[in-house]
């Protein structure tokens, strides 16, 4: 589209979109669009041609059909909390931003089938609440749960703090409803746990980051409500020692082990520095810390079980100190520290993030080597290492010194990514464990992904999105 054509086409598109969603479904003023055009980290700034907010699947379908016929690119957005720039449009002013924010209905809760059918724009915390109301539990839990949406969770295959027990978002979905790039609706809203009738299309759309279709609804699995919890904070002198503690817990607590969240001393310090009213849970210095949680569906004393494990951990030298939570408020304080890391990083300055996964058995060696590689680059770099250690997922982030210009930040980012991801690749890990590829890791995907896998992915993209309108410039 050349510059003279653009205003006419935009005018045509806007009037057609308004016919579909009504004036209340369009956001076109630049000051109103800004919050959609900028990501949570304020790292990417786009400029959409318009934000369209359909209220029904039929409207999504009509919007997609119109965009398909006019070869207009579409960027789907849920809660806009993604960490890889996947929901931010480019700066061309030509992309339509399709927000699911009005598609926020819980369609059905079926306690007997342990399932719930919700629209793509429903906020995760609302799903958790709705499950509680029928004495059930929806286990996906993220720091962003008050804003992120089920559609976004599915599109990024979100992880979070309970993957250890329940798996990723992929493991919590039974069926999907998807609007395809040409506007056709695929109704795959099956509430079944067994269905071997061919290729698994559901799994194709989960983790596709808005590049294959718009997830307008999903049937989610519900689980038994957890009625007892035991929470502890431990300090250890090395990653290897902490891994042994994890192993003891896994052996002795089995499925009751819900969370094992690690943070280095530097990550904890960052929270203490930037999150008001946060205090260090333990006295003394420990190189690594972990927040551990057991949970169960009946009222056996989990606290005693956890206490026994921790005693063994101390005896064997796996941990140097520990506290067991004795009240709900104490538990909340500990989780506040853990959940405060993302915000603390934003306040501290520019962080070069690495959301990586490794075999759990390789974590120790990797961290020793990668830490040495980062320190060797410059003493001014601060390593903020934390993450979902029980899943082998580290947020191996590096805080840059203050006062750098954008060119220096770019050079540091490239250097650090090469050093850290090169090592991840050597250990057969993943350069995106839970945050997705988006625009952040798109170029690196070409370096690290197996070429046959990449080719198959491109073939699928070409087949499903022939006009290449779904989230161009992201993932592939
Ligand atoms: P968005 O950011 O709006 O979109 C993300 C991607 O999904 C984009 O590519 C977008 O195009 C696509 N998309 C969104 N909705 C749809 C849809 N309906 N159909 C098709 N494509 C769609 N993530 C984790 O995995 N684990 C964590 O522990 C975690 N912690 C976080 C903590 C904080 C404080 C923050 C801010 C973020 C955290 N995240 C975490 C990242 C983020 O919250 C998740 O990636 C989340 O799943 C994104 O959901 P969203 O609705 O905000 O999606
Ligand atoms: C988290 O686990 O808190 C987020 O996924 C990590 C982040 O902010 O990088
Ligand atoms: Zn995380």
From TrEMBL:
InterPro entries: FAD-bd_oxidored_4_C (IPR004113), FAD-bd_PCMH (IPR016166), FAD-bd_PCMH-like_sf (IPR036318), FAD-bd_PCMH_sub1 (IPR016167), FAD-bd_PCMH_sub2 (IPR016169), FAD-linked_Oxase-like_C (IPR016164), FAD-oxidored/transferase_4 (IPR051264), Oxid_FAD_bind_N (IPR006094). The keyword Flavoprotein applies. Transmembrane segments: none annotated. Keywords: FAD, Flavoprotein. Residues 44-225 form the FAD-binding PCMH-type domain. The keyword Flavoprotein applies. It comes from Alcaligenes endophyticus. Belongs to the FAD-binding oxidoreductase/transferase type 4 family. It comes from the Bacteria. Pfam families: FAD-oxidase_C, FAD_binding_4. This is FAD-binding oxidoreductase.
């Amino acid at each position: 589209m050349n510059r003279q054509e653009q205003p006419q086409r935009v005018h045509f598109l806007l009037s057609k979109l308004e016919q579909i969603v009504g004036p209340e479904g369009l956001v076109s003023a630049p000051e109103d669009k800004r919050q959609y055009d900028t990501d949570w980290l304020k790292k990417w700034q786009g400029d959409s041609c318009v934000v369209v907010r359909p209220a029904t699947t039929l409207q999504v379908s009509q919007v997609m059909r119109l965009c398909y016929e006019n070869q207009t690119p579409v960027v789907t957005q849920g809660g806009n909390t993604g960490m890889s720039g996947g929901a931010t449009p480019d700066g061309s002013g030509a992309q339509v931003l399709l927000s699911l924010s009005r598609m926020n209905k819980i369609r059905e809760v079926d306690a007997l089938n342990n399932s719930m059918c919700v629209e793509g724009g429903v906020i995760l915390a609302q799903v958790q609440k709705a499950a509680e109301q029928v004495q059930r539990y929806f286990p996906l839990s993220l720091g962003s749960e008050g804003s992120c949406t089920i559609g976004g969770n599915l599109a990024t295959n979100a992880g979070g703090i309970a993957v250890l027990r329940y798996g990723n978002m992929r493991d919590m979905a039974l069926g999907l409803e998807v609007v395809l790039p040409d506007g056709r609706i695929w109704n795959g809203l099956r509430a079944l746990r067994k269905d071997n009738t061919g290729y698994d299309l559901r799994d194709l759309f989960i983790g596709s980051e808005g590049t294959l279709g718009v997830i307008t609804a999903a049937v989610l699995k519900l689980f038994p409500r957890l009625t007892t919890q035991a929470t502890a904070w431990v300090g250890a002198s090395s990653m290897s020692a902490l891994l042994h503690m994890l192993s003891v817990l896994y052996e002795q607590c089995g499925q009751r082990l819900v969370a094992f969240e690690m943070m280095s001393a530097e990550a904890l310090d960052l929270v203490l520095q930037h999150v008001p009213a946060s205090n260090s849970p333990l006295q003394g210095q420990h190189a690594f810390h972990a927040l551990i949680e057991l949970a169960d569906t009946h009222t056996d004393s989990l606290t005693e079980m956890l206490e026994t494990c921790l005693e063994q951990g101390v005896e064997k030298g796996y941990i140097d100190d520990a506290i067991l939570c004795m009240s709900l408020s104490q538990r909340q304080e500990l989780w506040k520290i853990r959940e405060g890391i993302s915000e603390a990083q934003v306040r501290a300055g520019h962080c070069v993030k690495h959301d990586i996964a490794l075999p759990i058995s390789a974590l120790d060696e990797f961290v020793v080597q990668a830490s040495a590689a980062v320190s060797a680059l410059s003493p001014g770099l601060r390593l903020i290492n934390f993450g979902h250690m029980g899943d082998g997922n580290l947020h191996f982030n590096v805080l840059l010194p203050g006062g750098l210009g954008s060119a220096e930040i770019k050079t540091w980012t490239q250097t650090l990514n090469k050093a850290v991801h090169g090592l991840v690749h050597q250990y057969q890990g993943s350069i995106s464990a839970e945050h997705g590829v988006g625009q952040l890791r798109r170029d690196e995907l070409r370096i690290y992904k197996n070429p046959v896998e990449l080719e198959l992915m491109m073939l699928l993209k070409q087949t499903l999105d022939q006009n290449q309108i779904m989230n161009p410039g992201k993932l592939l």
